[in-house]
Amino acid sequence: MLSANGCFTEVAKQLREVKNNTSKRLIIALIDYCKLNKYKSLNLGLAPLSGIDQAKDLPEKTLKFAYERLQQFRHYRGLRDFKEKFLPAWQNKFLIYENHYDLISLPNVLNKVMKP
């Protein structure tokens, strides 16, 4: 997606049939395109669950644990690691929720939406 000042892409899914380094090559081509067309920024999208440095309560501790330790959420770590290769300027994004149950159910919802 292009705007007046920058480009945006969401690197969220990687298909198993795609050859190694294809995603990297596409991002590098997009970076080159943005430079050539004098865009000021390229947004690689989100890295869900990766911004909890200091968990404050049980729901945040649960999410942090899921992100760091549980196998079914390893693709979020992989997504963050992949995007780190391009030296991004990370910005925290926050969720507003009514009760702790909403936050605790977040990993399951994200898994359904983002898992390849």
Strand residue percentage: 5-15%
- What is the arithmetic mean of pLDDT? 80
- Report the radius of gyration as a whole number of Å: 16 Å
The largest sheet is: 2 strands, parallel
Count the helices. How many? 5
Distance between the termini: 21 Å
Helical residues, percent: 40-55%
Low-confidence stretches: none
Widest β-sheet, arrangement of strands = 1-2
Textual characterization of the structure:
- It is a single chain.
- By secondary structure, the protein is mostly helical.
- Helices cover 45% and strands 5% of the residues.
- The protein contains five helices and two strands, in the order βαβαααα.
- A two-stranded parallel ribbon has the order 1-2.
- The mean pLDDT is 80.
Compact overview of the structure:
The protein is 45% helix and 5% strand. 9% of the residues are buried. The chain has 116 residues and is mostly helical.
Supply the key terms.
mainly alpha; single chain; 5 helices; 45% helix; 116 residues
